[in-house]
Each structure stands twice: as structure tokens, then as C-alpha cells.
Amino acid sequence: MNLKERSGKKELLDLDGIPFADIKKNMQELNFINTWLGGHRISIEGLKQLAGKSTELTVCEIGCGGGDNLVALNKWCIQNKISANFIGIDNKEECIRVSKDREELTSNSHWIASDYREVAFEQKPDIIFSSLFCHHFSEEQLIKQLQWMQLNSKKGFFINDLERHLIAYLLIKWLTRFFSTSYLVKNDAPLSVARAFTRQDWKRLLKSAEMPEPFKIYWKWAFRYLVICKNA
Questions:
Q1: Strand ranges of the sheet holding 83-90, from the earlier edge strand across to the other edge
Q2: Widest distance between CA atoms in the chain
Q3: The whole model's pTM is what?
Q4: What is the pLDDT of residues 142-151, one digit of tens each?
Q5: Which residues, listed in sequence order, are joined to residue 62 by a DSSP beta bridge?
Q6: β-bridge mates for residue 197, sequence order
Q7: Which of 115, 195, 214 is nearest to 156 (CA)?
Q8: From CA 10, how far away is CA 191, in angstroms rounded?
């Protein structure tokens, strides 16, 4: 498997006509992976760095799926006595319906079924973030996405996404082969790694998007990058 270049192959999740029961199973398994392989911890670190000493925050996730990431951030905010409101944006209405049923986020959340690019905020959120979202896009689309996140956030944005690496590809292919019951996860998890970015990719993309420096790119276990861009 040659991962020197990004794969241009579409993930099944990005195709039309996938039954929502299958998508829901995919979301459940991704939440398990995020919980046990540290994905939620990475998002919490991104939130901490941008939040600073704030005691009130509005946090927006694009590509929020079933709301699992926002539930994890909400727990951290409660533990640290931060009054937080959350906005979740996803272009799949079924995902938004699942998110609206999350008991943990009934009073302090707002859910939007839309392409994030079509959302206009009355008040900008303090922080915008995405998790396992960027690798679904072409580089041209991602550059525009970075610019949108920077333009629409007060404090800045962070990204939690995969590293394109052969060991990561082989590891997730082995794990999902034996432990996943979702055909979407079995197919898309290794492909997600093949569609992901290296550190050099991120540096080039951030500079192409003219993001304010110094932006930060951290390598995190298990084979992920945390990208943080603060607004001036």
C-alpha cells in the first residue's frame, strides 16, 4: 500500500442511498473508537488551548454526526465550571435528529441540518472545530473550509483528524476486520487513513489558506493530528 499520495477514492459514507440504520451503527462504533483510542481527549485539548481562562463559551462543531464529540466537551466544561453552549452542524438530517435526542445536551445546544457553508451565524461562536471530518474533502475544498472556520469564529478553530501513515492504515484495517460489525467502518476506516494528511500537508494547506501564524500542529496517539489556529 503506497500512502505517499492521498487516495481520491470516495468513502461509502459520502455516497447517497446508505440506509440510516447503517450510518447509526457506524457512528456508534466511531464513538467507541474515539472514547478508547483517545479521540475525545484530543478534542478536549484543542478546546482547552483556545478557551484559555474563559468561563463562558459557545462552541460549534461542523460535521457533528450524532453529537458524541459535543457530549464529551460538555462533560469537560461542566467539570471545569465553564458555562458552555453548543452548536452542531451536519448535512444529514437523520444525524441531527439523533443529536437532538441526546439528554446530555438538551438545554444548552442548537442543532442545524445543513451544509456548514450555508450557515450564517447571528453571533459568531467562540470556537469552531471538526473531528474526523477534513479527510472527506479535496484540498481545494479544505482550504475554503479552513478560511470559513477562521472567518466565523471569535477565538479560533481546531481540527482533530487522522494521520496518513502506513502503520495506522494496517492497524485500523486489522482492528476493524476482527472487531467491527459495520461494513461502513470496515471499508471507510482504512480508507479514511489513506485520505488523511501528513504534517507537511497541513503546513502547506494552512499557508495556502493564509491562516494567521503561529498555527500549531501536534501529533497525537493514535496517529492523529491536532491543528490549532488562534485568531489575532
A1: 109-113, 83-90, 56-62, 127-131, 156-162, 224-230, 216-220
A2: 47
A3: 0.95
A4: 999 999 999 9
A5: 89
A6: 163
A7: 214
A8: 8
Assess contact for 47 and 230: CB atoms under 8 A.
Answer: no
The answer to whether the beta carbons of residues 87 and 61 sit under 8 Å apart is yes
6-10, 34-38, 131-135: which range is least confident on average? 34-38
> Rounded CA gap, 206 and 4, in Å?
19
Can you tell me the distance from the alpha carbon of 127 to that of 69, in angstroms, rounded to the nearest whole number?
14
Placement of cell 483510542 in the chain? 37
Question: Do you know the residue count of the chain?
Answer: 232
Tell me the β-bridge partners of 39: none
Identify the H or E element spanning 65.
none
Question: Residue 143 is which amino acid?
Answer: I
- CA 88/CA 61 separation, integer angstroms: 5
Kindly report, residue by residue over 29-61, the tens digit of the pLDDT: 988 888 878 899 999 999 999 999 999 999 999
Cis peptide before 209 (omega within 30 of 0): no
pLDDT digits (tens, 9 = 90+) for 191-222: 999 999 999 999 999 999 999 999 999 999 99
| Class of residue 220 by CB neighbours under 10 A (exposed 0-12, middle 13-18, buried 19+) | middle
